[in-house]
Specification:
heterodimer; A: about 260 residues; alpha/beta; Elongation Factor Tu (Ef-tu), domain 3; Rossmann fold; six-stranded antiparallel sheet; 4 helices; 13 strands; about 15% helix; about 30% strand; B: about 150 residues; alpha+beta; Jelly Rolls; 5 helices; globular
């Protein structure tokens, strides 16, 4: 499908990848019933680290444990590290209870990144499902900051219900732009919802991209990504231009523990 | 006299359909418009039409005793609404409600069924096109039923 991302050059280096740095929580924002966004800055000031869209960090809660979380903030503003997290396990549930001023450990950034440089000159189709919009949000920030370098930019976003949509304010803002196509759908809704209902893959047939000059980036549940890839290929996008985010079994993030 | 033939030809559902069939189908077609909130049909009613949506959005809904009215799918420009006219007992299985101002071409199902009986080639062509739509909707419904966002990201 996508080329081996491990062969791409590393854009950031980590001074000591095993050593968490203390970061303070600056803001906590509730996104949905079980997802929240936290903004972190280094304790005692100093520089944070730069990151590429798609990279992740290991967030460490003292005495509880460590989890890999994608960075969802603006790569042009690396001084504040933003993560959107779904509270589904022990560590993430503990993170969801932290408040402004609390401290967490941060290692990273780690992992591969979305091909925003390679996508220049092409249409870009971003397909996100559920919490999968979070790792793609830095891509959108980057694309919009370099808008003239890209063709059409299309965001197709699906979630379970209207209450499960992330970044609703930003979605509304992005929908208002003339240089960005945004389609949002949910799988289930009551009659008060005036938007789309149906799976996100149904947007692909109608999306106005040039399949011969398109880079697609997909993040969401694996089943959703599988169907999205099939649909994109059906509409002419070549496999080598389709990039997905597979997030499985990350433990130490540096290939040391062997878990991955 | 102007007919709806060019509009039918421009709709994705009838893409590349032979002109002689378009001519036949145009004889069963009429322009319709639904205001936001207006029901197009109700579950259980006789299904005598299907609709080619030209503009707007339509919600397919079902009423449940526990959760009230639930939207199971929305359709928009370029979509086809309704296939119950094609299969006995010709009754709608869901409610359809325009959620925005919607313009569509209504095709008279009884009229088309008669033409399909007279010309089986036309019938086969229509059934093929509807089978494709039904297949797409079935796949989408399966994906929806998986509730992929429910368990884990």
């Amino acid at each position: 499908m996508a080329p081996d991302r491990n062969t791409l050059p590393v854009v950031t280096s980590v001074a000591d990848p095993m050593l968490p740095r203390p970061y303070g929580i600056q803001r906590v924002r509730r996104e949905t019933r079980d997802a929240f966004t936290i903004a972190l800055t280094p304790i005692g000031g100093g520089d944070s680290f730069s990151f590429a869209p798609g990279q992740f960090t290991m967030l460490y809660v003292l005495g509880v444990g460590e989890v890999p979380i994608s960075i969802s903030g603006d790569p042009a503003q690396p001084q504040t590290l933003v993560h959107t997290i779904r509270a589904v396990g022990t560590v993430t549930r503990t993170l969801s209870q932290l408040k402004r001023g609390d401290v967490v450990g941060v290692r990273g950034p780690f992992g591969s990144y979305w091909p925003v440089e390679e996508a220049q000159g092409n249409d870009v189709v971003i397909v996100a499902g559920g919490i999968g919009l979070a790792p793609l949000r830095p891509v959108l920030f980057h694309l919009l900051a370099h808008r003239n370098s890209y063709g059409r930019i299309i965001l197709l976003y699906g979630a379970r219900t209207p209450q499960d949509l992330l970044y609703v304010g930003e979605l509304e803002h992005w929908r208002g732009r003339f240089d960005l196509e945004v389609e949002v759908t949910v799988d289930h809704a009551t009659e008060v919802w005036r938007g789309h209902v149906g799976v996100v893959t149904t947007f692909i047939a109608k999306a106005p991209f040039d399949p011969f000059s398109t880079i697609a980036m997909i993040c969401g549940p694996e089943v959703m990504m599988r169907f999205t890839v099939l649909e994109l290929q059906k509409h002419g996008v070549q496999a080598e231009n389709i990039f997905v985010s597979m997030e499985r079994n990350t433990k130490c993030a540096i290939g040391f523990c062997g878990h991955c | 006299m102007e007919t709806l033939k060019p509009i039918l030809a421009a709709h994705p559902f009838f893409q590349d359909l032979e002109p002689r069939y378009l001519q036949l189908i145009a004889g069963c077609a009429s322009n319709v418009r639904f205001e936001a909130g207006q029901f197009i049909f109700h579950e259980g009613e006789e299904a005598n039409h299907f609709y080619l949506i030209r503009h707007g959005r339509v919600a397919l809904e079902i009423v449940t005793s526990e959760r009230g009215s639930i939207t199971i799918q929305t359709l928009g420009e370029g979509d086809v609404l309704g296939w119950s006219w094609l299969f006995p007992p010709y009754r709608w299985h869901f409610d359809a409600r325009a959620t925005t101002l919607t313009r569509a071409i209504a095709l008279d199902g009884k009229c088309l069924r008669t033409k399909c009986e007279d010309d089986h080639d036309l019938g086969y062509e229509l059934v093929k096109r509807f089978a494709h739509v039904i297949m797409q909707r079935l796949q989408a419904t399966r994906l929806q039923l998986l509730d992929v966002y429910g368990a884990r990201p």
